[in-house]
Amino acid sequence: MALDLGALALKYTGLAVSDHDSIVAINIFIALLCGCIVFGHLLEGNRWVNESTTALVLGLITGGVILICTKGVNSRILIFSEDIFFIYLLPPIIFNAGFQVKKKQFFRNFATIILFGAAGTLISFVIITFGAMGLFSKLDVGPLELGDYLAIGAIFSATDSVCTLQVLNQDEAPLLYSLVFGEGVVNDATSVVLFNAIQNIDINHFDVFVLLQFIGKFLYLFFTSTVLGVAAGLLSAYIIKKLCFARHSTDREVAIMILMAYLSYMLSMLLDLSGILTVFFCGIVMSHYTWHNVTESSRVTTKHTFATLSFIAEIFLFLYVGMDALDIDKWKLASSSPKKPIALSAVILGLVMVGRAAFVFPLSFLSNLSKKESHPKISFNQQVIIWWAGLMRGAVSIALAYNKFTTSGHTAVRVNAVMITSTIIVVLFSTMVFSAC
Amino acid sequence: MALDLGALALKYTGLAVSDHDSIVAINIFIALLCGCIVFGHLLEGNRWVNESTTALVLGLITGGVILICTKGVNSRILIFSEDIFFIYLLPPIIFNAGFQVKKKQFFRNFATIILFGAAGTLISFVIITFGAMGLFSKLDVGPLELGDYLAIGAIFSATDSVCTLQVLNQDEAPLLYSLVFGEGVVNDATSVVLFNAIQNIDINHFDVFVLLQFIGKFLYLFFTSTVLGVAAGLLSAYIIKKLCFARHSTDREVAIMILMAYLSYMLSMLLDLSGILTVFFCGIVMSHYTWHNVTESSRVTTKHTFATLSFIAEIFLFLYVGMDALDIDKWKLASSSPKKPIALSAVILGLVMVGRAAFVFPLSFLSNLSKKESHPKISFNQQVIIWWAGLMRGAVSIALAYNKFTTSGHTAVRVNAVMITSTIIVVLFSTMVFSAC
């Protein structure tokens, strides 16, 4: 049960973090993060860019410079790892999403959000999986099994709505914002749960019973994860209310809130639940109860601290993805026939668009049917925006693809390299193009 | 130049962080951190305890429980690593010290602080080194070389004034507080610089020229580290003033401040300077200039965020030290003659007390001599408190001892195990006893 932080600090070369190269890498990375904030701000007037795309582009440029400096040997100062993503970067982003969400709008549209986020993602997953099974064989991608196709369905069902939310305004379009936002979080949770469920399923004995088991497990995860998050949030509220920290109160209150939120996420991971859902609902409960039990300065501090941590994690992520995109080994391996990843990416993008259209319009119709006269309905224009907003694929897709198709960020199999490079192309293209339009 | 975060996430067993055991370890650790805050608060009325001692005791208890659960095989869920200490835990603590210091008092007593922190630490270092050379041979510790004795001098010259500062009150005893506080930071920097200088020195060709070189290098490090920290602080003030972040301003301002401060520390490490001094002066400049350029909510947020991060890092550290203290392998190795580490610790504690007395009283006398009539002098009672306050040995000593006497937290040599266990005894004893009196 010993987690050796000393060994955690070992590089894959066997040297410690305190060695010179790693310190150089950390310095470059932090300087780039600062650069992203500064450039992102300077380019703010331009509607084609935001911090995320700035970070992506800066990451790509840095990767290119390193590639030239190392004479084509290496493009990365940090190698993407889904552990880092799921343990350090995702929790602050999702927690902040829950903490800052406008709860009134969110719960008013709760049914629609769950419909889009859970049922919609499942529809999209089915369409992408079957589409990939039908079309990939014509591209001669390589030997993929049923499990791989199911994983591809889950990987490309995970949307990335961070960029859209930077364009949509919470005050001007509250209905749209809460729908896109809520769907994004539920969708992230659904696709991760789906992905994990697929990894554990016995594909050779697939029948109705297994399907029912699968659905049952899915609902169980959804329910227990939510309950755990709510419980952690309420416990933090109770502790802070009971203890009445006096001297140094703010530091202790903020520390308790940060630690309890992270604990809820890790506990959820420990129990094999969905950490994303848990920490999201923990954020909602904390902003609704705990936040009102703390001092005035704690309120200001928590609000901005969580936003800042989430902001840094997001830039870190996009910088990371941009830098990782130029990894020369995978491209060499994948590009024995250079057109293949591009053709594959185009097919995937098409499937993503069809898969999303296949649930946004029918489910909006259903949602409108069930609404009373007084409630605002989702107009066709809004449906198009919702469809468009969910086309971006981001870090969740990358993390899942790395989990499925690599071992610790490395692969030597051609078909895996093709899948990774295609995922990167889809993410770069969709983030750059869809977020700018 | 690739820092493989994937491999960073590898345990020493070769498994990834996402494996079950590591998640259990992280959960226990975060739960313990929460426990320390809650217990530390509940026991606040008691003058014998504070968060630090609570964390130490909780760490010891947890270590004991794990030792029993694993039937004496293991006591640690996290293995102490000086990389983690110097890269993640120390920077927020020292930066916050600089950020929150009362600058008026600090600069009024600047000469005395430097005298105590730099010259005093050197005197203490010389006395402990020569004392150890004279007394250790009588205890039959094992084969120690001149380099080892010099390292021991540096290791036990590093004070830990965190605990004292929790007892002293900045408003009631401003002179004492600023002296003890300032000396603590300068002392940390001096002993780390000393330790590194000793590691690089050629002991076999030691003469006056080498000594002069050593002193020259020491002054150079002191000066350049300070300049780097001041420059980083001023640059952050300039960036924030020039950019005038409008929307999301607080998040960006806070992010820039955190990132620039950390960058200054890592840059200092990269240039082989003293990161502690750099980040301390960066904190001072940021609180003096940058802090006045940001919005009101950023001021509240930064003040409390830095305090909270430092608070969490401190508890983490003491918990870590407490848990590591029961590492069964080292004790088995060291205790072939069980009295040895205890006798050795007693000798070291004696040397620490003598070494500190040897500079506090003479240097206070010098400082009083040079002061004009109008300035408050350091009374004898205050001198005793200053002497007492610096007797505690803490995480810096542990980190340096691990650096010198282990390889990635492990050792198989008996004399090294004896030195590590003695360091742990000195730290536990001095923290528990001296901070409580």
Automatic annotation (TrEMBL), chains A, B:
Q: What is its main location?
A: membrane
Instruction: Report membrane topology.
Output: Multi-pass membrane protein
Where is it localised? Membrane
Q: Which Pfam families does the protein's record reference?
A: Na_H_Exchanger
Spell out the reaction equation it catalyses.
K(+)(in) + H(+)(out) = K(+)(out) + H(+)(in); Na(+)(in) + H(+)(out) = Na(+)(out) + H(+)(in)
Question: What molecular functions are annotated in GO for this chain?
Answer: potassium:proton antiporter activity; sodium:proton antiporter activity
Task: Recite the UniProt keywords alphabetically.
Answer: Ion transport, Membrane, Potassium, Potassium transport, Sodium, Sodium transport, Transmembrane, Transmembrane helix, Transport
InterPro entries membership: Cation/H_exchanger_CPA1, Cation/H_exchanger_TM, NaH_exchanger
Question: What are its GO biological-process terms?
Answer: regulation of intracellular pH; sodium ion import across plasma membrane
- Record domain Cation/H+ exchanger transmembrane: where: 29-433
Q: What cellular component GO annotations does this protein have?
A: plasma membrane
The transmembrane segments are 23-43, 55-73, 85-101, 113-137, 218-240, 261-286, 306-323, 343-365, 385-403, 415-436
Q: What is this protein called?
A: Cation/H+ exchanger transmembrane domain-containing protein
Record the organism: Aegilops tauschii subsp. strangulata
The lineage, from the top, is:
Eukaryota, Viridiplantae, Streptophyta, Embryophyta, Tracheophyta
